[in-house]
Design a protein that fits this description.
Length: 277
């Protein structure tokens, strides 16, 4: 019995060690980027890297005094707007497909998924030509529309399993009590799918926030987002690594903080839809 307990303790210590190693491997790139952002360019290229140095916030101050500040705000506006609109349209659509009683529901779901599976570059030329005629190039509205195209399919495919696992008797009981279809959906169904809503909203925001390809092609200066603005510090005179690191840190920090705050709902939301209740 004693040998068995000792063996379990060794296995637990080994497991804890593996968890620590994995956590360090996952966080190492972010920590290194943060480390670079408070160094001067001379310190960044110094070899061997100095273990002790005086941190400087000049990179952040210089970065925030440029057009990056407006680009950061643009990313917040576009990411938030596209996420809200996608949820408003996509969640009821997912509920409608979940409660579909006739034929064709699977076919519609497949076509919705196909829009997400297509490579982004396949949509670039059609969107660019359409935006040029509609005068939507270099506008926040244009970015919101194109992110909406991809986020809608994500919302529908993420939320439909959550609605599928909820018994129809919940809505029927609400209808018997005099509730309308909309009232039953808002007051009964949506509160029960809270973790799924949180997880889906986070993923939609991440897609819009981290996008570089569409923002690079469809914007110039007025609607430039933060990921594109960071590239401006790579020029022929040299790459300003300190500002690049500071910009990358600022881009990752809001998403990281938000994910940590709602991590309980995110984990439950990503796994809950796969289980039948």
């Amino acid at each position: 019995m004693t040998d068995h307990v000792a063996s379990l303790r060794r296995e637990r210590r080994l497991l804890n060690l593996l968890v620590v190693v994995l956590a360090v491997m996952v966080m190492a790139p972010f920590l290194w980027l943060l480390h670079m952002s408070v160094k001067t360019n001379a310190q960044i290229f110094q070899f061997p890297p100095p273990l002790w140095f005086t941190p400087t916030w000049d990179n952040y101050a210089a970065l925030w005094s440029t057009g990056f500040r407006q680009s950061f705000v643009n990313s917040l506006v576009v990411g938030t707007s596209s996420t809200v609109v996608s949820m408003i349209i996509g969640v009821p659509a997912a509920y409608a497909l979940s409660r579909w009683v006739g034929r064709g529901g699977g076919t519609i779901s497949l076509w919705i998924l196909a829009s997400r599976m297509a490579p982004p570059i396949a949509f670039t030329i059609p969107y660019f030509l359409a935006y040029r005629h509609l005068e939507l190039l270099d506008t926040l509205t244009g970015l919101v529309v194109i992110y909406l195209t991809f986020n809608l399919s994500l919302v529908i495919w993420m939320m439909r399993p959550f609605f599928d696992q909820l018994p129809r008797s919940l809505e029927e009981a609400a209808w018997i009590d005099g509730a309308t279809l909309a009232q039953a959906f808002v007051r009964i169904i949506l509160p029960l799918t809270g973790p799924g809503l949180a997880a889906t909203a986070i993923l939609c925001f991440l897609f819009a926030w981290n996008d570089f390809f569409f923002a690079l092609i469809l914007t110039r200066t007025e609607a430039m987002t933060a990921p594109v603005a960071v590239v401006n510090f790579m020029n022929y005179e040299g790459w300003e690594w300190g500002r690049i690191a500071a910009g990358g840190t600022l881009i990752m920090l809001p998403v990281l903080v938000f994910s940590l705050v709602v991590r309980k709902y995110l984990v439950h939301g990503l796994t809950g839809g796969a289980l039948k209740g």
